[in-house]
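Changelog-adjacent note: as of this version, every example in the card shows the full chain rather than a window. The one below runs 352 residues end to end.
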Amino acid sequence: MSSVPDLRVRKGNRAPVDAGGRFVLYWMIANRRARWNYSLDRAIDWAKALDKPLVVLEALRCGYDWASDRLHHFILRGMADNAERFRGPPVLYYPYLEPAPDAGKGLLENLARQACVVVTDDFPAFFLPEMIAAASRKAKVLMELVDGNGLLPMRAADRVFPTAHSFRRFLQKMLPQYLPEHPRPFPLKGLRLPRLEAIPGHVWDRWPPADYGILSGAANSLTRLPIDHQVGAVQGEGGSRTAEQRLRAFLERHIAVYDRDRNLPGIEATSGLSPYLHFGHIAAHQIFHAIMKKEDWFFDRISPRADGGRSGWWGMSAPAEAFLDQLVTWRELGFNMCWQRTDYAQYESLPN
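Full-length structure tokens:
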């Protein structure tokens, strides 16, 4: 049924699919983007198979640790981008901004009662695993978790790697078989689904969707929220559009000196993509494919040697290989640990 690799999909509960439900629900919590998103692909595949409308719920709580104007503003800009990209296609995008702690309780459960199936993002850190587990227990329909975190499916590794070198060696053995797989770059293009014009009124009355003025960062739009206002918004804007602009600028102007100058604070040689990856505004797959295009690279240039070396394995330029070591090895080393150890945030979890 689905274009999403099986290894990236797991069940959050044992509930059935309800073919009589009103719509397919994608609960967007980590992969906060409308492109290059395996979770969105999976939800679209379900909607097509069941011939049902698709609803995308993207909510922002106010009670999370370190909630502040800075983080809220960044995430809300991403929601504004999503609102624009979902506006034309036959998808009902539902952005919800929680006005007070726990005010959003019941929203997902209410929508899930009307859904055929719920798809969400399989993210292994922060409060998300506990939130997903609680929601899965309450849902009366199947809830699927989809891993769109990195180039390597998290569950392709059956153990925690204590060092970057050992994980890099594992990647060099295993990653080539997964590299040809990627999410759809433009899953909404030409999409045909039944259209749902609105959520039932009692839901929207209790949990009204955020208006575009708030999402786009209108002046004083966050002042009424119970978050830390002393940590103010910064100049950098969140969202997929800005992330894509940063990626283009990095590849055009900075990557050529990345291997040499990235650790020099006085030189602008880094990508600036970390916060966009963190909040799901851009996918590792999208970045990787942009580098492939710039390097005029194909999979046959990969070295057969899997010795864990930092350079030479990809068969790319030195700057590109240095950047990919950060994007793939070091970033996905974190996912490798987080999904397998619940104590990943504790000092005792550090390797000896």
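Structural remarks: The chain has a mean pLDDT of 95.
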